Structure formats: structure tokens, C-alpha cells
Amino acid sequence: MGKDVIIACDFPGREETLAFLDRFQDRKPFVKIGMELFYAEGPQIVREIKARGHQIFLDLKLHDIPNTVEKAMRSLARLNVDMTNVHAAGTIEMMKAARRGLTREDGTSPLLIAVTQLTSTGQDQLEKDLLINHPINEVITAYARNTREAGLDGVVCSPLEAGMIHEACGEGFVTVTPGVRFAGAAADDQTRITTPEKAKAIGSDYIVVGRPITQAEDPVAAYARCVREFVD
Ligand code: C5P
Question: Element (H or E) spanning 48, and its range?
């Protein structure tokens, strides 16, 4: 699996996003488009960024009945995204439907990954709100195994969990990990964080980096530093 840095383009609209991407002239970064931008601008923003030569991770975290998810994925496949995702909580059947929907006529498919548990969910909420009475790491590992069984490519997880996931699901199972900060930098609202270098050592396949690049004085230099520490 090719290691890469994915920039989380958490901007409210098209103008800010394209102005930001205009700065990158040499190497076109892999970008993540989330709900905020997609719901504001619609599928056209995906086509436009794709046409500029970027790979796209469309982070919409689908979770619905299998038939609906399959059809929604068919629409996303037509957008030609490179990676997208679902919630593993939607069940193995839903994840299989997602894969069917995303598979093109020639049998190829964009990378399809699952969210096991959101990093905003802690042990307390798992037990009190969701009535799941298991240690959260066991839940994450079990959902990752379901994801593999459904034929998906990997999971989104904390970089600190990448080793545990690879142990449970194999080295080829992709780990996509947000929660990355440069050594000595502010954590913002992230809790389980690590540096690009450590994420590489633990075995992340893709790191998703937002504010350390988008809010940097020199975003191109911050991106280059991530690539240097994580990929090279
Ligand atoms: O700015 P920052 O580097 O914290 O951005 C991380 C990105 O990854 C954001 O788009 C955030 O929504 C996303 N993300 C996350 N934790 C997850 C899943 C997604 O931080 N578990």
C-alpha cells in the first residue's frame, strides 16, 4: 500500500478551497472532502478538484439500509473518487452493499474504508448511550474484522491504533489515520495524537492532516514537512 499524506480540506466553500489548492504547484496533494464542503457545494466541487489532478477521499461516512447505501455508492463511483467510507456499525450486509455499489463495470473500485467508532466516542458514551458493554479497543477491533469480512479495504482509526488493527486484520488492511500533529505543536481538539514520523513507525498507511497544514503560515512547506516525515 502506497503511503501518502491526505490534506483535510475543511473549508466552508469553493472559493477558499480552490484558493488554498492553487498554492500547490509542484506536487498535487491527495485531498479529503468532508460533509461541510460537499453539502455546501455539491458533487461539482469533487469534479472540479479531480479535474485539477488531485486524488480525492470523499469522507461522507454513509450509514443507512443496504439498498440505499448501494445506490448512493453507485452515484459516488460515477464521481470517480479515489477513496470513500461508511460506518461499520451499518453491519456487514450494509458494507457488502456499499462495495457492490462502488464497483465499476470493469470490476475495479475506489478504496472503501469504514469508521469503527468515532474518536469523539469514549468508553462512557459507548456504555451509556450505545449500550455496548465491551472495552472500546475490543469494539474497534471487532468492527475492523467485520469490515475485512465484508470485503472492504480498511478502516479510519487513530494512528495509535494502526498497529493493533494490522495485527488483527493483516498488514495489507489499510489504516487511514487523522489525529496527526508536528512535534511540539498545539493539539487543538484532538486527543489521541502523534507525529507523522511516529505514525509511519506504527504503520499507518495514510495520514489525514487538516489544521497543521491548512492553518500554517506556509501550507506548502507544512505539507512538504509531512511528506518528508511520513512518506520519504
Ligand atoms: O485539523 P485536523 O488535522 O484535526 O483534521 C483532521 C480531519 O480528520 C478532520 O477533517 C476531521 O473531521 C477528520 N477526522 C478526525 N477523526 C476521526 C475521523 C475524521 O479527526 N476519527
Answer: helix 44-51
